[in-house]
Write a structure and sequence with these properties.
13 strands; alpha/beta; 21% strand; 337 residues; 2 domains; Dihydrodipicolinate Reductase, domain 2
């Protein structure tokens, strides 16, 4: 059995991990920590069947864990990662602390890094792209929820040099769980219900440099992303519409065929037939990413639509998928495709 610990267990991603652990035949929960609710059973924080006793982070028995999941905020995760790695555990960080390889870029968006010496050791945990690196690593930077769908859609296209413009537009909408469990005026029911709003548009959302980093790596040259996130009046799910300008010989049918070849061995990538567009109903409550493409109506323009469950393929599900790869297990173990 794999002994798994969670820092920040009472956030939405920590809650999802505990649920996945119950369905995973090779995981035993080593500890679940919470700064706010230490000393209470998890079932007293959320109405649920999980009675794990929450402990303070400083009391976490790292020597009792083979892998540690960090569901803590950026800035807080890096020191926990260093402690866990030094104790001999593998680490999967669901925050942004190890996603950006360039420390200067990290500082521009997040501030000073809490464990800079470990940044170069992290593998970006987009499972279908970095599978070979994941089986050999000790530290995984789990991707952000917004980047996951667009990156899976665009990576094969950029690898083939198909784009004729370095600018990509990503228009995405997420359920309120993407904002985390801590309440705010913006995510209050009265402000979200019967509403649909944009925020941090253009080049101001912190997932923007993450997308640009990975797409630039795929293309071999600089890629700029115009990212426009929106808040949906639903609990979970992300639908992303991506606009790209491609060479004339790249039709929707050709891109669909490319995805089918690139992801032939990817159990969680669902490529929809030509003429069908991804929706949240294709993916919610699964670890699946749905990919679809349509003609943009103008020469050389494609419109790509992707969908994921932000708490699963966009967070905890992908984290467990990465853990499965790290420990040599079937990557689908414990997860719903």
């Amino acid at each position: 059995m794999i002994r798994a610990g969670i820092f920040g267990a009472t956030g939405y991603t920590g809650h999802e991990l505990l649920r996945i652990f119950r369905a995973h035949p090779q995981i035993k929960t080593a500890f679940a920590s919470s700064t706010t609710y230490a000393g209470q059973p998890f079932s007293e924080v959320y109405p649920c069947p999980y009675d794990d006793l929450l402990i303070a982070p400083e009391d976490a028995p790292l020597d009792a864990a083979d892998v540690v999941f960090l569901c803590t905020p950026h800035g807080a995760s890096a020191p926990y990662a260093a402690r866990a790695l030094e104790a001999g555990a593998k680490v999967i960080d669901l925050s942004a602390d190890f996603r950006l390889r360039d420390l200067k870029v990290y500082a521009e968006w997040y501030g000073e890094h809490g464990a800079p010496s470990y940044t170069s050791k992290a593998v970006y945990g987009l499972s279908e792209i970095y599978r070979q690196e994941l089986v050999r690593c000790d530290l995984v930077a789990n991707p952000g929820c917004y980047p996951t769908g667009p990156l899976l859609a665009l990576y094969p296209l950029l690898e083939r040099g198909a784009l004729v413009s370095e600018r990509i537009i990503v228009d995405a909408a997420s359920g309120t769980s993407g904002a985390g469990a801590k309440p705010s005026l913006k995510t209050h029911f009265c402000n979200v219900h019967d509403n649909y709003s944009a925020y941090k548009v253009g080049h101001s959302h912190r997932h923007t440099p993450e997308m640009e980093q990975e797409l630039t790596r795929a293309a071999g040259s600089a890629v700029r992303v115009t990212f426009c996130p929106h808040l949906l009046p639903i609990a979970r799910g992300i639908l992303s519409t991506v606009y790209v300008t491609v060479a004339p010989d790249w039709t929707p049918e050709r891109l669909t065929s490319l995805w089918q070849a690139r992801y032939a061995d990817a159990p969680f990538v669902n490529i929809l037939p030509d003429g069908n567009l991804a929706s949240l109903a294709h993916v919610v409550n699964t670890n699946r990413c749905a990919l679809s493409v349509s003609d943009g109506g103008a020469p050389c323009e494609l419109v790509i639509v992707t969908a994921i469950d932000n708490l699963l393929k966009g967070a905890s599900g992908q984290a467990v998928q990465n853990m499965n790869l790290m420990f040599g297990l079937d990557e689908t173990l414990g997860l719903i495709a």
